[in-house]
Design a protein that fits this description.
The protein starts with 6 loop residues before the first helix and ends with a helix. The chain is about 40% helix and about 15% strand. An 8-stranded mixed beta sheet has the order 1-2-4-3-5-6-7-8, sandwiched between helices. With about 300 residues, it is an alpha/beta fold. The chain contains 10 helices and 8 strands.
Length: about 300
């Protein structure tokens, strides 16, 4: 049974809805992108962490160049995190991911490579995954030390897909960080019904995203996008150790829990974090909720502990 919504998040989400920021999806893709970007940029200053430097670079992808934004930490600890932003594979960019990238860099002392992967519906699957893997390969050749792939929501789904590609084709990964990942295009888990109305992300939002990102039924069987299919085929062995964070009041809750359990059953080292009273997207809502901020901090702490334990 789900826990009660954190009161601070309840207030924040009610205000977002009243001000017209929710729902996240709109009939028109361009309008949804503007709304998502404006909301992220308004909130960005509240969560921005200091870093030593920021610069953009270009990665040669399989079909097109991929722009990345590289954040250097003030106190480097020999870790590079390739960060893949959320936004349902349709929304988001380097600017909307800025606060998250800075937070990861500051908390972990990690160089963060934030990836401006191609978006659907103009570029459906596997374009975003190909761009993400190209950026991961680039980062592995540019920087030494430990290599992590991570992201939130849709970005976490891409990170999970990258972990499969990296196992089979390189580069070697030291860990993966999956914050409330989007992994199941069939939307068949109970939490999709239980949390259909959110709050914050709804089941209708997810259907809108999946229809644009993976429009074909056959494509939704691709194990690199449907991680349940990867588990069914026994393809989750030998993956990099993972931190999997879920939120109790999230339509995507169960797919994260099931993926964590499937990786554990396949012998992968997994650290789980289950946010009671929290919603999808809580990593970006820390300025509005003490509980959301603490849970995001704990996810990063678990990653640091996992890297230390496997180093």
């Amino acid at each position: 049974m789900s826990s009660a919504l954190d009161p601070e998040l309840a207030t924040a989400i009610e205000r977002l809805a009243a001000d017209g920021w929710l729902p996240l999806t709109r009939p028109d893709v361009a309008e949804a992108r503007r709304n998502y970007r404006d909301l992220a940029l308004i909130r960005r200053g509240a969560d921005a962490e200091p870093v030593a430097s920021v610069h953009d670079d270009v990665v040669a992808g399989p079909d097109a160049d991929v722009v990345v934004r590289v954040y250097a930490p003030e106190e480097p600890r020999g870790v590079t995190v390739v960060w893949l932003h959320g936004g349902g594979w349709v929304l988001g960019d380097l600017d909307t991911a800025d606060a998250a990238a800075r937070r990861v860099a500051h908390a972990l002392g990690a160089r963060v490579v934030s990836v401006d992967y191609r978006l659907a519906p103009e570029h459906p699957h596997p374009a975003a995954l190909q761009d993400a893997h190209a950026a991961l390969r680039w980062a592995s050749t540019q920087f030494g030390g430990r290599l992590v792939v991570g992201g939130d929501s849709a970005g976490a789904g891409l990170a999970a897909g990258c972990a499969l590609l990296a196992r089979d084709w390189g580069p070697r990964l030291d860990a993966q960080l999956l914050l409330y990942p989007g992994l199941d295009p069939t939307m068949s888990h109970p939490s999709v019904v239980e949390n259909a109305d959110g709050p914050f992300l709804t089941a209708a939002d997810m259907r809108w995203f999946w229809e644009r990102y993976v429009p074909g039924e056959q494509a939704r069987l691709d194990p690199s996008v449907n991680l349940g299919e990867a588990a069914r085929l026994g393809e989750l062995g030998d993956l990099a150790p993972a931190v999997v964070a879920t939120a109790d009041l999230d339509p995507l809750r169960d797919e994260g829990l099931v993926h964590a359990a499937a990786m554990t059953a396949a012998g992968v080292t997994v650290r789980e974090l289950h946010g009671q009273g929290l919603v999808h997207g809580y990593f970006g809502l820390g300025a509005a909720s003490v509980a959301a901020r603490a849970e995001g901090d704990r996810a990063l702490e678990l990653l640091a502990e996992l890297l230390a334990a496997t180093g």
